[in-house]
Every structure is written in structure tokens, then in C-alpha cells.
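Subject: Interface between my chains keeps coming out wrong

I've been trying for a while to get a sensible model of this assembly. When I model each chain on its own everything looks fine, but I need the whole thing in one frame so I can look at the contacts. Pasting all components below, labels as-is. Any help appreciated, I'm running out of ideas.
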Amino acid sequence: MKPKIAFFDFASCEGCQLALLNCEDILLDLLELVDLVEFREAISEKSARYDISFIEGSIHREEDSKRLLDIRSRSQYIVALGACACNGNVQARSNFIAPAENYKLIYGEEARNRVQVDKNYWPLWAHTRVRSVEEIVKVDYHLRGCPMDANEFLTLVKALLSNQIPHFPAHAVCVECKRNANECVFDKGMSCLGPIAYGGCDAVCINNGHVCDACRGLLPYANVGAHNALMLSKGISKEAIQSRYRLFCSAEKMSES
Amino acid sequence: MNAYLSNLDQIESWFFNLAEKQLFFLPKKTQGVNYRFEPIDHQQSLDLLNYKPTILPPGKNIFPDDEILFSYYKDDDGHYQFSQGVTVNSQLLAGVRACDLKGVYLLDEVFSDGVKDSHYLRRREKTDIIAFNCMTPCDDHCFCEAAQSLDFQMGADIFITPLFSTSHKGQANEEQQCLLEVLTPRGNELIKSLESTECSSPQDLKNHAIASRPQPFGRQFSAPIEQLAKAIHQKDADSVYQQYAEQCFSCGTCNLVCPTCYCFETKDELNLDGSSGKKTRHWDACLSPGFAEVAGGHNFRAEPAARQHHRIRRKFDYLPQRFEQTFCTGCGRCGRQCTTGIDIFNIVNDVYLSVQESQE
Ligand code: SF4
Ligand code: SF4
Ligand code: SF4
Ligand code: SF4
Ligand code: SF4
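Reply #2:
Try treating it as a single job with all components included. I did that and got this:
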């Protein structure tokens, strides 16, 4: 029997699903091998059990976390798809701002005041804290990045379909910079989060003349103290450094300090 | 073998000529402050006197990342058919510094030791090297003299030594005489297209040029390398490794840029059809946390200090025991490119000093 695969959406821009749809060339071959039982609105048929569930998006409300627990209980493998699911992504910045303040920042003062008194707006307060998927359920595999990397997606699916353990090494982005013979951006007077960030993206931002902002999340062994000292030594202010860590990694424990 | 005299101007035109006939790599300036071995382009100023060690050492052209070791498919009878790697083209690496030449020489030793590594060796077989000696230390990071790789010339087909002061940074000109020592039959072929005159007393000229270099040349350790190696062998000096580990990102850059690091991991890449695929190899790094992790999850060197210790012993103790050469060429790359500023030169010195202290 073909393995049953499902995609579930939480808070995200759906860019990861788009990134996937963009690799049409492999997608058709892939669809021959699996049974796609749930892909948002695309397919309505519901299946009670899934072999691989891809979770896209970060978890904000209690009802979301309940839904996630339900998916977990019906899935053999849970795969967190993309930066929102893996590390909270940019929306987790709001974890550091009081909800009312956040609301004001986005919609203005008037809307903030209305949300306090108008019942129809109250569900907006249900949002508590932006969490990664792993904060709520056990995650078997992470497909990191904003957006996720189609090659890694393929590696994962091929491995699972052939009963192998997919291998995503937990190394820094610097490793991939070396593989591409990149000049380190610190040598160009810029600064970089690559030394503490999960690689796997082939250092795509540096290859294209940018810096790394750790969209794939901080490594479990990230030496944030040493990185902080390095950034300070380049004349970057404490606030700017913190804001940089919080860009993609606010839901991570390391950036709470 | 023979020696010839020519000038820098002629050598540059010779390089451009050679590059028309084959794949030819030479250090080229990046947009920032570094250099990279790249195919020569005609607009480029060659900078032969000034360039410092490239981001990656030239040996990586013989030991590339993501190399296909073999690929396979299942034929109609259900048998697996294998084919080895990809076609290897001949290449010429020019402007290789002595430190990097020693790096290639050490890779040659390692990959021909015991079971021969055919993948490396067939690329090496097709690689010609024109080395270019240094007359001034390339920058503040180098310690090639202390690491005994300055003037190293084994493995080159032609070894070029400038016979003039290289401290001024002008254009190449005719006054700039160079000595070219031809060390192999291939070198003999290559030199035919250079305008040059035969030299009858190469050793005197070379000795004279070498004697006029700055002394000491580059950074020097607190003690001769043999004594450092002994100290590293004798004592664990845990506190020194720990001190460096505290600043370390475990990013592996220091390994990946090193001309003597040869560790790799292999990867099986299966195609979607489930019956064809390839085996590839990728550079690995012993400073990476997963390097010594084995099946079942045990990690023999889970702590960064243990990994740094291991690295130092590989360069100065374990491999020298096996190959009778220090496996650090003093090229300075690791210190130059470590974002947090950890420099193997300092680690080794500190280990030596701490062992000295503990013996007093
Ligand atoms: S540019 Fe960033 S990721 Fe690349 S080597 Fe430098 S610090 Fe590491
Ligand atoms: S280089 Fe950094 S920011 Fe860019 S994709 Fe990779 S992890 Fe994300
Ligand atoms: S390059 Fe520096 S930070 Fe990275 S592993 Fe080596 S010593 Fe540590
Ligand atoms: S250990 Fe560092 S200085 Fe020594 S050869 Fe390797 S990169 Fe060069
Ligand atoms: S380390 Fe020594 S041999 Fe190597 S480039 Fe610098 S000066 Fe030349």
C-alpha cells in the first residue's frame, strides 16, 4: 500500500507549500509513489491515519495546539515544514511584546481600543504565545528554512519511502560557505549569524551576496555567548544584536536572555 | 633536473598561453580581501607576488567536495550495474605556495597509504603544479618557516623563486628575474613555451635570494616544533583546550580550509525510482559536533575541548608519528578564517607553555 501523506496548515504564509509546488518536475513522480490524503482545501477526503504528516506554520492558539495533538496521535511521522513550524519564525517576535501593544503596532490605536470592547474582536486575544511545533508534540524530522529547501524535502521523502533514516547533519551555515569557497562576510565588513545557525540551505544567502539571519534556527550547541561577543567586537549595539537573534528565532529558548 | 631564468613579465604571458590550452587555476582576488583559485581570465592582473593563501587550499581541486564515488542502476535482468565516478579532466594549478605544496604532498602520502584512494589518485595523476615561492611572509597569520614548510618543493612540476625583492607592489616588469626549477618530465614539457635562458648555477642564485629574505620569516613558536610535538604528546593540557573551546562555535571552518585535512563522510543518494542512485563523499570536520558520533548515538568527543584537543594531536602528534611530517603547514588559514579568532599557532604555543609551567 502506498504511504499516506498529509499537509496541515497553521500560522504561516504557505510559502513552503509554494516552494514545493515549484518543483513540478519531481512532484509528479512523487505523487505516483504516495497517497496524498490531505492538502489543505485541495483534496477533501479525510483519512483517519497518516504515515507522514507535514505541519506548516507556528502554533498560536489553544485550539491549534489541540488540533496538532490530534494530528500527532494519528501520524506515524510528524515533519515540521519550514521556519514557522521549526522555530516560530518572524511572527514569534510578538512573544516579547504585550498583546495590546502588538495590536496597536499593527492596526493602530483605534483598532486596539475597539478590540477591548467589541465582542466580535475578542477571538483575536486567544493568541497566547507563538510556539514551534516541537514545543507541543514530538517532531520526527525538521525541514528547516524560510522557505524550506526542496532538495531536503526530497531527501526526506526518498529516505522514508525506502525505510532509511534521513540524515540532516546539524552543522553551521559556515560549513556550506566553505563548500562554496565563499568569502566570509565578516571579511567584507558585514556580520553574520551563520556560525550559530543550522545549515542545510547550502548557504544560499551568502552565495548571493547577503548575510545569514539564521532562518533555519539556532543550532542546539550554538555558542550564543561567543557570538554575542564577536558581534559586540564589530561595534554592533546590544539592542541591534538582540533584534537580529529575534528575527527568526524568537520562539527559541536561547534568545530569551 | 634543469633550471631556467626568466622574468615575471614573461612568466605572466606564459601563464596566459598555458591557460588557452588547458584548465588552468590561479589565485584571484575576491571582491573583499581574500583570494581564490579560479580559472584565469584575461582581464586579471596576476598579483603573483602579493597574494596570500586562498580561502580554500589548491588541494581541494584534487579532493573535491560532493565527489561521486560510484553510481548504480538495476538493469533489465534485475542485476545492479555500477560505474565509477565521473570523467576527470587534466588541470594545471599555478601559483601554488610552498605551504600549500606541502599540503598536497601530505594528501598524496595519506591517500596512497595502505588501500590506495583511487578517486584522489586519478585526479592527482592529471594535475600539474607550478609553484611560486614566497620572499616575504604573506601576512600576520603565517608561520610556515616555524612549521617547516617554507621552500618546500616536493610534488611540484616547476618551482619558481623570485630573485628580487618582492616588497614593492608594482606591475610585473623585465627587471624581475625569476628562477624556474624543473622537477619532473611534465615540467619539462610545460617550460618549452616559456621564453627563458638555461641557468647553470641555480643553487647559488636561490641561496642568495633566500638569504636576503626577512629573518625570522613569519611567526615563530616559543620552541622548535619537535619540542612542541613532544609537549602535545606528553600532556593533555585540558585547561588550555577548554579555554579555547569556550570561544569556539564548532563550525568546522578551521578543518574545511586546512590544506592537510582529508576527512570525509560518504552519503548514499537514492533516486526516486528506488533502484538507482550514487554514493558521494563530502568534506567532514573533526570540530563538528557530529564527527565522532556513531550508530546508536554515542559521541566519542561530545565536548568542544575534546574535539580541539583531537585536532591539535592529529596535526602535531598522531599523523606525524605515522608519516614523519608535521600535519600543519603554517599556512595560517584556520586562524585567518576562524570568525571568533582562534588560531592554532596560539593554541600550540599555549599548550607548550602550560606543559613547561607544570614541569617547573
Ligand atoms: S559568511 Fe557567515 S556563514 Fe559564511 S563563513 Fe562567514 S560567518 Fe560563517
Ligand atoms: S543562509 Fe541563513 S538566512 Fe539564508 S537560508 Fe541559510 S539559514 Fe536561512
Ligand atoms: S573555525 Fe574557529 S569557531 Fe569554527 S570550529 Fe574552528 S576554532 Fe571553532
Ligand atoms: S592547521 Fe591551520 S595553519 Fe596549519 S595547515 Fe591547517 S589551516 Fe594551515
Ligand atoms: S604561509 Fe608561508 S609559504 Fe604559505 S603563503 Fe604564507 S609566506 Fe608563503
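Reply #3:
Confirming on my end. The pocket of iron/sulfur cluster (ligand 1) is lined by residues A 173-174, 177, 182, 184-186, 192, 194-195, 203, 206, 212; B 339 (CB under 6 Å).
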